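Hi everyone,

Forwarding the result from last night's run.
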Amino acid sequence: MDDDVAPGERTARVFRHRLNELFARGRGGRPVTNREAAHWMTERGYSINEAYLSALRGGHRSSPSLRVVEGIAAFFGVSTGSLVDPEESPDDRLRAALADEGVEQFALRAQGLSPENVRAIIEIVDRVRSLEHLPPVAPPGTPNGHPPASGADRG
């Protein structure tokens, strides 16, 4: 990023770039559409529509509310900071998880499984975490694993 760019513009550029990267990378090994993302977020209390996501991705809108950023972060399973902070990478959480003994081997064994089987394994792991009295693993942007409060915030 250029040093002569205003901080707000730099943040907007980082956000737009990271948002488009996440959409291209997608979920479950395939890119996702604005419609899919907006539908998922709206179902979970993050009021956002396809057109607004398109405007954010295209740079026509550049100042989303914190609620919108939280919804996007929750959808992609990244931290809110990774969407706007030039110093934080969306992959920081993954790197930290892979540093745990056995997690890398677990991930390698899951590679190539169908999305349905990956979801089944995730459900099993969530049950085991519960049996071991570990907290649920919530997507970043959702407080303590609880669904967000409903609201009409669109930016």
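Confidence is low (pLDDT under 50) at residues 140-155.

Cheers,
N.
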